[in-house]
Design goal:
By secondary structure, this protein is of the alpha/beta class. The chain has 17 helices and 14 strands. The strands form three sheets. The chain has an eight-stranded parallel β-barrel, surrounded by seven helices. The chain has a four-stranded antiparallel β-sheet with strand order 1-2-3-4, covered by helices on one side. The protein has a two-stranded antiparallel ribbon with strand order 9-10. Bound molecules: zinc ion.
C-alpha cells in the first residue's frame, strides 16, 4: 500500500475515506479496505445519511444522473446552496447497458460520494425507466428509494379506440371536471375511447406493480409513473384520464411524467412552441395538484426556455430529471484541458454516430458541426455550446466510454481536473435551479 491522501470532509470519528494508488479506500479504525460493495454497505448501516431516502415528498426534487460516478462533488455544492432535494443515483437500464455499470455500482458510488463530501441532507436513488417486475424488485432490494415505472410497453399508440363499457361512460361522459384557476376537463365519447385505448392497459400494469411492491410497507420507496416515452404528447385530457383511473385502481404515485408538447431532446433546450407549452403546463400542473402528486419532467437537461413556466405553474412543487448535461460538462473539461484528446473523442463519436442513434431520438445535423481540426484549441470548448455537437457527444457517451483507450485517457483527465469539473457542474446546474425558481437555502452561519 502506497501513500494515502485523506478526503478531509470524510473524517467521521475513526472512519474516513482516502485515495490510494489503486483508487479510493475506506479506513476503519486504522484498517484499510477497498471501497467496494461491502464497504458501501458498511457505510449505509453505520452512517445512515449515506443510504438513499425517499425525497419526492419534498417540494422540489431534482435528479442528476451521474453516469461517470464522479459528479457528486459538484452536485453536492449545488444542493447545499439551493433548496431542492437531490436524486444523486439515477440510471435507466439503457444507461446501465451503455456504461457497463450495475445498480450496485451506481448506488455505491453515491454512498461513497456523500460520505466523502459529508453531505448529510439526504439523497434519493432512482431506478429510472424500469419496465419489468424483476427490474423493479431488483432495484428495491438494493435499497433504491424510488422507482420510475416505464409503462411504454403497455401504452398503445396505434391510433385505435377502445369499446366503452357502462362504467367508463358513467365516470367520464356528460361531466365537467373543474380544476383550479378555472381550467376544466370534459370528454367526448371519441376522446374517452381513445384515452382508454392508449392508457387502459398501462393503468392495469401500473396497478399490478403498485400492489406488488408499494402498497405494503415492505420497501421504503416511492413510485413515479412514466408515460412520457410515447409517440404522441399526453394531452391534458389524457393526463386527467390516466390519473383518475390510477387513483381508482388504488395507485398512489408520488410523481407522474407526462409527455409534454414540443420536443424534449437530450442535452439541448426545448424545441417547440413555448406559449403552447406554457398553456398546457398550467393544466398539467393543475391536474397533478387535483390528484395530489407532483409533475415530473424528464430529459430536463438544459430546458432553459421552459423552466420558468414549469416553476410557475407547479408553484414550485416538481421533480426534474437531468443526466446528459452532466456528461457534457465533463467533455467540456476535456476540450479545455486536453484539446488533442477531445479531438480524438470527437472523431470517434462522428464515426459511431449512426450506431448510437439506435438508442436516442435526436435531430442533430452532423454537417453543421465545425470540424475540430480547423478550430483553434481556444475555440474547442465552444463546441459544447453548439446544439449539433452537444447531441453528437451526448448520444455517443456509451460508445466513447466503451473504448478502452479513450476511457482510460478520459478518466485520468477527469481525475486530474476534479476541481474544475465540480466548478462547471456547480455553475451549470445552478442555472437550472435559478430558472426553475428554486430558492437559495437560508444559511444558518
Ligand atoms: Zn422519461
Amino acid at each position: 500500500m502506497g501513500k494515502l491522501m485523506m478526503y478531509p470532509r470524510s473524517a467521521h470519528g475513526k472512519v474516513f475515506m482516502a485515495r490510494g494508488d489503486g483508487g479510493d479506500v475506506l479506513v476503519i479504525d486504522g484498517k484499510t479496505r477497498p471501497a467496494d460493495h461491502e464497504a458501501a454497505e458498511y457505510l449505509r448501516e453505520n452512517f445512515p445519511f449515506t443510504a438513499p431516502v425517499p425525497v419526492l415528498g419534498r417540494e422540489r426534487s431534482f435528479g442528476v444522473g451521474d453516469r461517470l460516478g464522479i459528479a457528486a462533488p459538484g452536485h453536492v455544492r449545488v444542493f447545499r446552496k439551493y433548496d431542492a432535494a437531490p436524486v444523486l443515483a439515477q440510471q435507466s437500464m439503457r444507461e446501465l447497458k451503455l456504461t457497463g455499470r450495475t445498480y450496485k455500482d451506481v448506488l455505491d458510488a453515491a454512498t461513497f460520494a456523500v460520505f466523502r463530501e459529508d453531505y448529510q441532507d439526504g439523497f434519493g436513488a432512482d431506478g429510472d425507466h424500469l419496465k419489468t417486475m424483476d427490474e423493479v424488485r431488483g432495484a428495491l432490494d438494493l435499497g433504491f428509494s424510488m422507482i420510475t415505472l416505464d409503462c411504454s410497453e403497455h401504452i398503445r399508440s396505434d391510433g385505435g379506440k377502445a369499446e366503452l363499457n357502462e362504467d367508463l361512460r358513467r365516470r367520464y361522459l356528460d361531466r365537467t371536471f373543474m380544476l383550479e384557476d378555472g381550467d376544466s376537463i370534459v370528454f367526448t365519447e371519441d376522446d374517452l375511447a381513445k384515452a382508454q385505448h392508449i392508457y387502459g392497459e398501462a393503468v392495469r400494469y401500473a396497478a399490478q406493480v403498485w400492489w406488488s411492491f408499494f402498497a405494503s410497507s415492505a420497501y421504503r420507496a416511492e413510485l413515479e409513473i412514466s408515460i412520457d416515452e410515447t409517440a404522441t404528447p399526453t394531452t391534458p385530457q389524457q393526463h386527467f384520464f390516466a390519473a383518475s383511473e390510477l387513483k381508482l385502481a388504488g395507485v398512489r404515485m408520488a410523481t407522474l411524467a407526462p409527455r409534454f408538447c414540443g420536443e424534449f431532446q437530450k442535452g439541448i433546450d426545448y424545441i417547440g412552441d413555448v406559449d403552447q407549452f406554457d398553456r398546457e403546463m398550467r393544466v398539467h400542473a393543475a391536474i397533478a395538484r387535483h390528484f395530489g402528486y407532483k409533475i415530473s419532467v424528464h430529459s430536463g437537461s438544459d430546458k432553459f426556455s421552459v423552466f420558468p413556466s414549469i416553476g410557475r405553474h407547479t408553484r414550485g412543487v416538481f421533480h426534474v430529471k437531468t443526466a446528459g448535461t452532466n456528461w457534457l460538462e465533463a467533455m467540456r473539461v476535456c476540450a479545455e484541458k486536453n484539446p488533442a484528446l477531445y479531438r480524438e473523442a470527437h472523431a470517434f463519436a462522428l464515426k459511431h454516430f449512426d450506431e448510437a442513434r439506435a438508442y436516442y431520438h435526436v435531430s442533430a445535423n452532423l454537417n453543421k458541426i465545425p470540424d475540430p481540426g480547423t478550430l483553434s484549441d481556444d475555440e474547442l470548448p465552444g463546441l459544447m455550446d453548439d446544439n449539433n455537437a452537444r447531441q453528437l457527444i451526448h448520444i455517443t457517451y456509451g460508445l466513447i466510454l466503451s473504448d478502452p483507450w479513450l476511457h482510460d485517457q478520459l478518466c485520468r483527465l477527469w481525475d486530474a481536473n476534479a476541481e474544475l469539473y465540480a466548478d462547471k457542474l456547480e455553475r451549470h446546474i445552478a442555472r437550472h435551479m435559478r430558472l426553475l425558481g428554486v430558492p437559495e437555502r437560508v444559511r444558518a452561519d
